[in-house]
Amino acid sequence: MPGMVLFGRRWAIASDDLVFPGFFELSLRVVWWIGILTLYLLHRGKLDCAGGALLSSYMIVLLVLLAVIICTLSAIVCVSMKGTICNPGPRKSMPKLLYIRLLLFLPEMVWASLGAAWITDDIQCDRTVVNGIIATVIVSWIIIVSTVVTIIIVFDPLGGKMAPYSSAGPGHLDSPESSQLLNGLRTAAASVWETRVKLLCCCIGKDDHTRVAFSSTAELFSTYFSDTDLVPSDIAAGLTLLHQQQDGIRNSQEPDEVVTHSPGPPQEADLDAELENCHHYMQFAAAAYGWPLYIYRNPFTGLCKIGGDCCRTRTAEYDLVGGDQLSCHFGSILQTTGLQYRDFIHISFHDKVYELPFIVALDHRKESVVVAVRGTMSLQDILTDLSAESESLNLECGVQDCSAHKGISQAARYVYQRLVNDGILSQAFSIAPEYRLVVVGHSLGAGAAALLAIMLRSSYPQVRCFAFSPPRGLLSKSLYEYSKTFIVSLVLGKDVIPRLSVTNLEDLKKRILRVIAHCNKPKYKILLRGCRYELFGGNPDNFPTELDGGAQGHLTQPLLGEQSLLTHGSPTYSFSSDSPLESPTKYPPLYPPGRIIHLEEEGASGRFCRAAAQYSARWAHESQFSKILIGPKMLTDHMPDVLVKALDSVVSDRAAYVFCPPGGGSNVDMV
């Protein structure tokens, strides 16, 4: 940080990013040079053949050219290892070295072309020499093509507009011209991100919802990324440092005084009842994913169990559920839930932007009508997730400030209209009028299920909702408080999604900037130790991240321009302030739904192995999920199959505890 300025534009690569690629190419060039030298010394006496003089000249010039390239690469690697992320001063000669390195590609390309031309001639020389020259030509062109691909990857479409900021001082960034230019940068960034999203989602239809989602996603990305001068490796280094910092803080804290089991019998009974309900209804949330998740959970037997349904033609029993696009899904749903086909009222796998698949079934065991909404499984779902603006809801709940995540509220409204307008719920309750309504979902489906339950509560006052791993950025504060009476959320470990919101992402960006600004190690050391720490663990305290005394002021000085840019680009962001982060009006703080049960892993386990993991459960406050935690399990803890296993473990452990409690058992009512 910041990105290098070459040829009058900024590139998405920093001057300290060339250690690893430079060392790799340097090693390859040294081996190559030694091989050519050995080939020349051993076979120069055999080059008295036709065309041998050309090959001899070719190898001599190639040896000289490789020697110059090796010296240049050595200088690039040495310079790239100097300084720190936020102190690029010792690397100020890097642009000149890169210009020299790029110029050396011209004679290399010419020589590789001549080598290819000579080899195509019928040269009657020692075959070993000819094969060596062929290998040399091939390697030369591989390196040249790889360099072109790398240049394309690190090309920043906004580099021409960002270049003035990479070299400007704080005083220039405070000028009116800077503010005007930055506004233009934001507009250009939104346009670039929208083009990228459209290219990535080129296979999706172009209806009105999709166009709105493209625009919303582009605005979110441009808002988050366009006001910083970070390159991808800076973010990777910052996340590595944050993970070690978080582990160090946790290790230094006293043991948590909050015990796993609530001391009061009512709270304990309530937790046990809700855990049992979650354990039961999680199967419906998993079933909503259809056959892909079922095959993933049962890789050896899944296809055999549902294969017949995949090949079976649509029959009367399928028509009973009134769904569409079932294919292999129906068989996997039957296997996951254990229900019969006649227990299903409706199954829909219709999937578009703001329109989620869902199933409606009769659960006779719990005497409930279950609506299960599917989570993220397609590009359309991702666009729904990323439409993160806040929009007001027209609800009959007597709550002020009814606002929620735009994309998820649109998806919930679609399911609501299908359930009510198409008479799906009416059909279900005509069969079982005494049953109660339960809405469930996982991930994106959990957010949609929570909002759907809020929408349905005026018509179905006894509705319950179980949201598994819901996104944090979902409900306004007032709706969050309102939802506590009928919604229960379940969060596993360090799962990132229940901690994910625009507010928390801004906070994460702030913490990344702070930790890399205060780091006194070069980036390559941070990344090397980070890889070792993630793979094998270690003591996070062995890697200092705070600068000492006066050195801190010297090394953080280059960040003054960055601070001014962030202040202009993100009005609510203060680099040095520890005050709570306030989001722009379009992205106000949003909260997770209902009361939250947190499943935490007990004791230490392998970095990635959770075969013997044990979990404890307790009620948690939403403030415990106000920061994104970095770790290898922040993604795996979100997977529905991992959540199912964790629920199996904690419910069985607590059942044994309740069966033989120290002071006797208690009876609890389940939903």
Overview of the structural elements:
The two termini are 54 Å apart. The protein has 25 helices and twelve strands. It has helices at residues 19-43, 52-80, 94-120, 127-154, 159-167, 170-173, 176-200, 208-225, 232-252, 265-287, 291-297, 302-311, 316-319, 329-337, 379-386, 406-421, 424-431, 444-456, 477-483, 502-517, 523-536, 549-556, 559-569, 633-636, 640-659, and strands spanning 5-6, 9-10, 344-348, 358-363, 368-373, 390-392, 403-405, 436-442, 464-468, 487-492, 595-602, 614-620. The model is unreliable at 256-264, 314-320, 547-582 and 664-669 (pLDDT under 50). Helix 2 (52-80) runs antiparallel to helix 3, helix 7 (176-200) packs across helix 8 (208-225) and helix 9 (232-252) crosses helix 20. Strand 1 (5-6) and strand 2 (9-10) form a beta hairpin. Among the domains are: 5-154, no CATH class; 265-312 and 325-491, Rossmann fold. The protein is of the alpha/beta class. The strands form three sheets. It has an eight-stranded mixed sheet with strand order 3-4-5-8-9-10-11-12, sandwiched between helices. A two-stranded antiparallel sheet has the order 1-2.
